[in-house]
Amino acid sequence: MKSxxxxxxxxxxxxxxxxxxxxxGCSKVNRxxxxxxxxxxxxxxVVALLGEPEQCDALVSLKSCVWGKxxxxxxxxxxxxxxxxxxxxxx
Length: 91
Fold this sequence. Notes:
Blueprint: H1 2-24, H2 31-34, H3 43-50, E1 55-59, E2 62-67, E3 73-79, E4 82-89
Antiparallel strand pairs: 1-2, 2-3, 3-4
């Protein structure tokens, strides 16, 4: 019985590690997605492409949103919910 319990724990640990690594590799903050950004895109289109941003700051009708953390980021600036500028770091 003890061996079966250890095998189950090991299998569960391996499954958890695989799941974690697959989720970590699914970042939408990459060159392929960045190249799909276009001037004039709606905010909703950007979110559909990149997912929810890590952070947004807004002042009147100007919004600046950042996707990603650390060395790899995509920053999108919008006016009236339309893209006017975008840039990347570390892609």
